[in-house]
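[Automated response] Your request has been received and processed.

Submitted sequence:
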Amino acid sequence: MTEKELRKLNRYQLLELLVVQTKRADELQKKLDELEERTAEQHIHLSKLGSIAEASLQLSGVFDAAQKAAGLYLDAARKQAGEIVEDARLQAAGIVRDAEMKARYQSILLEDGVEK
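Generated structure:
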């Protein structure tokens, strides 16, 4: 509506036009408020997604570190087990030698006792 057309309207028509425009302004303000609220919610949602992604990356780092630690622990355990097995073999060989020497000694004693 042009300014010339507005000047031709009477008070009642102007008030009626003002009421219509006020209602329209209220509707638009309500839509604006809703859109701002949705935008804020989406911002919070995106912020949470960012936090989740960061947490995921941090957890991934924790899992990587745990995997490395588990690998180191397993390597150390295998090495220690190998050392224990080697020590046991050496002890077993010593025990076998001792037993063989005792058996020979007993055999010699028995032979000497039989001949005497």
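Summary generated for your ticket: The chain has one domain: 3-115. Residues 11-115 form the longest helix (105 residues).
If you did not submit this request, please reply to this message.
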